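Hi team,

Below is the intake form for Transposase from Romanomermis culicivorax. Please confirm the fields before the structure is written into the shared record.

FORM ID: S-0412
PROTEIN: Transposase
ORGANISM: Romanomermis culicivorax
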Amino acid sequence: MKIIEENKVYGVSFTTDIWSNQVESLISLTAHVVTSGFERQKLILHAQPMTDKRHTGEHINEIFTKMLTSWGINLTDVHLIVRDRGSNMVKGLNDAGVSNLDCVAHQLHLVESTTRWNSTLAMIERIRALKQDLVVYASDENITDWGLNWALLDKMILALKPFLEVTNKSV
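The structure came back. Fields below:
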């Protein structure tokens, strides 16, 4: 790739994702490098239809490898791939033998939704359970005000617990 050769880049990181609606699916591949002058460069390499409706790990591996090959990129030149947490994407990239990590933005979108509202309660309960550890950490790091209101967290737990109990009974 020209961007690699011109900037003496020794590894390329990528992002990849699949977008779908009821009719079609597209898979994307974007290259990310830091040049020798410490400038971030990104290049969209592919946004191609997935003509086969299967989103299996094997199919993703096949498409991903073809996308890289079409640009003359060897799997050994891949530094890292950031992808969603879908088991099919994880399997496809693991099978390709490349280093890959979950996208934090995808994880944040899963934190709360109307169908997973009780994750808020679980998060608050976990923070509350870790109170002593968090207080020690804050003290060690000289953090004096971190915006946590322990009394409010306790009230939120009391308010949300009945909803969890009703939800669990109806399941």
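SUMMARY LINE: The chain has two domains: 2-103, 112-170.

Thanks, M.
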